[in-house]
Amino acid sequence: MKVIPLAAESLGVRSMATYVEVGRTGILIDPGATLAPARFGLPPTEDEWEALRRANDRISAYASRSSFVFVSHYHEDHFRSDPISYAGRIVLAKDPRRMISGKQAQRGEALWKALDGQAKVERADGATRREADLELCVSPPLPHGVDGSPFGSVVALTIIDPAERERFVFASDLQGPASAVSAAYLIQQRPTLLYLSGPVSYLERDVGRDAIERAIEATGCRVIMDHHALRDARYEERFARLWETRRVVTAASYLGVDAAPLESRRNIVWAAVRKPPARVAASHARMDDRTPRRFAKGGFRD
Description:
alpha/beta
């Protein structure tokens, strides 16, 4: 089994896009990438725009090699709205009418409509598929963060290679996991490798220190931890006890390259510019769908 992170916070953008290959079968997972429109009250730097261009190129390249595309939920750093990346493929996507609301529901419905006649789209929630080389198992909807989260639900994907006895679990925005329900599900899956969003420690003032600490303690197997965790400028220190185990690594470390969490360094980069840009509204501190904010080259703040 080959697991290749294509885009991530440690690679400079908001994303968890991943390509997995088992035998002759390729699976493209969560093929979205965006930038935060405002962080520290500042817009993206040129380095961030360049990282986004590279990320999108990688996602497009691996889309052409994929038989399946999986979409865990409808935040725009996790899916693309254009049909090209999905055309001619089997798409396993979060049910846009089940345990979902607001902008996510609208985006999901729009994607399914756009893919009508372009791809074979199936509701992923709780689905199981057996192919010649592998087995795909999708979770029921799990909380996007803590139990009772107002930010909707996501579905996790388990890819099983029976020949090699490998089980890769892609758990996107479970944030730790921060939910006891999500943690129990992941343990039940017995992953040999788990990829998930880490705790939202950069929003600790909003969600509370206890929620962050619970999420850290829940991470206890061989893990790629990235996404929300890497938005914290102090992520190396904040999660030191995880990195020190050597069982938990960032997507960049998994690939053997230096981490480049550009968003968390945005204020430092702009501080070095003689004339910084006009500040923009700091809307980044709430992760919801009520007031989406577009930015120069597309995408939303979530």
